[in-house]
Amino acid sequence: MIPAILPTYNRAPLSFERGEGSWLWTDDGTRYLDMGAGIAVNALGHAHPALVEALTTQAQALWHVSNLYDIPAQQKLAQMLVDHTFADTAFFTNSGTESCELAIKMARKHWAEKGEPRTTILAFEGAFHGRSSAAIAAAGSEKMTKGFGPLLPGFQQLRWGDHDALTAALTEDVAAVILEPIQGEGGIRPVPDHCLRGLRELCDKTGTLLILDEVQCGMGRTGRLFAHEWAGITPDIMMVAKGIGGGFPLGAVLATEDAAACMTAGTHGSTYGGNPLACAVGAKVIELMTADGFLDRVGQAAGRLRQGLEGLVANHPRIFEEVRGTGLLLGLKCRVPNTDLVAQNYAQHMLTVPAADNVVRLLPPLTITDDEIAAALDRLDKAATALEQAV
Ligand SMILES: *Cc1c(COP(=O)(O)O)cnc(C)c1O
Considering 30, 132, 262, 387, which has the largest number of Cβ atoms within 10 A of its Cβ? Predict the structure, then answer.
């Protein structure tokens, strides 16, 4: 008999009752160190007092009015995003998938409005942009698309790291290129800064729109507000979600005026997108992340964690191959099945997240302390030792 919940997830037999900072408690009182942060969502940890305050204050005043009316909290959040990024304008969604939908629609409409027949969107193998029909067509993998055809046409996937294929494909007929500056689900695979700069140049030469998917790597995770800032480039359109709501469902599409000018009244919408509850939390998240010293501290924590992980890999060569990623978006490429390590981490009362390419992701709250980093490294060391004894 099919379970009451559609069985699309492989769930660990764990259930949590309460969270605080980097820690979660099960109903029997066992404490787990959360190095997954709800897949890069709880960027400020669990139950951050300022976020709880922002949400409950808004909840007592007003939950929802719809986008038929002005929403001051939405206006405030949009202005903050415009002030702190490349963007001239923002549209609010409830998830990364919805941000992907709008990014793709905007890119195509941009060319339709110009009267140029550009519809092709280039994407990359190993990408993850969400689970809608458009997002799976963009990613193109058999795992995500099998049985869901006919797929939305107009996407072409390029091999990861194949510069020649990219240069050949990126012609003046291409509407947009979509990519994650650091592939998350794909196994923590960063695009080197010089490649991002080269891609920006190619897009400029051909007029192609550059869509960056910063749903996982954005919102402070790399030590800058957005990952592309390290390369010194800006996109035309950017997808945001996950960390921006700190655990409350919120996403956004940020864009330049040129890319977004096609999106006039009636061309897109969302009932919940940008609702007062989500925007009150989002504005507090941005305020805290852009406060003096916050992102520097992320960088320091990241350096400490990475250094510890390099040592771990050196000490357990039969278990680990390498450390990948930047900031607090790190991956351990494993020599044993990654799911074995995730299970051993559970046994050590620590949550980590598997990714493709046999990688285990470490994406803790950005507020993780030095002591918690030490505890994570200690638990990983114990998990690796247990795995060595098992083989
Ligand atoms: C999680 C994720 C998405 C999809 O976001 P949802 O909120 O699950 O719809 C899209 N792109 C990237 C890079 C992601 O990590």
Answer: 387
Dist. CA 246–CA 252, nearest whole Å = 13
Atom of ligand 1 nearest to the CA of 249: 7
Q: Which residue's CA is minimally distant from atom 5 of ligand 1?
A: 96
User: 73: which 2 tokens?
Assistant: 């909290």
Read off the pLDDT of residues 152-189 as tens digits, 9 standing for 90 and up. Answer: 999 999 999 999 999 999 999 999 999 999 999 999 99
Kindly report the pTM of this predicted structure. 0.98
304 assigned binding-site residue = no
Q: Which residue has the tokens 């550009």?
A: 118
**Residues of the chain under the 70 pLDDT cut:** 391
pLDDT of residue 147: 98
How far, in Å, is the centroid of ligand 1 from the Cα of 126?
A: 13
Mutate which of 216, 228, 361 for ligand 1 pocket (most atoms within 8 A of beta carbon): 216
- Give the 3-state secondary structure of residue 91: strand
213 Cα nearest atom in ligand 1 = 13
Ligand 1 centroid to 103 CA: how many Å? 13
- CB under 8 Å to 127, separation ≥6 — which residues? 138, 139, 140, 157, 178, 179, 180, 183, 186, 213
Q: Which domains does the chain have, with CATH numbers?
A: 16-34+292-390 (3.90.1150.10), 49-289 (3.40.640.10)
pLDDT digits (tens, 9 = 90+) for 227-242: 999 999 999 999 999 9
**Buried-exposed string 50-80: b where 16+ CB fall within 10 A, e elsewhere:** ebeebbeebeeeeeeeebeeebebbebbbeb
Distance 314 CA to ligand 1 centre (A): 32
Cβ atoms of 264 and 97 closer than 8 Å: no
First to last CA, the chain: 37
Element (H, E) at 272: none
Rounded distance from Cα 179 to ligand 1 centre (Å): 12
96 is in an annotated binding site: yes
Q: Are 88 and 257 in contact (CB under 8 A)?
A: yes
Query: Of all atoms in ligand 1, which is nearest to the CA of residue 95?
Result: 7
- pLDDT score, position 7: 97
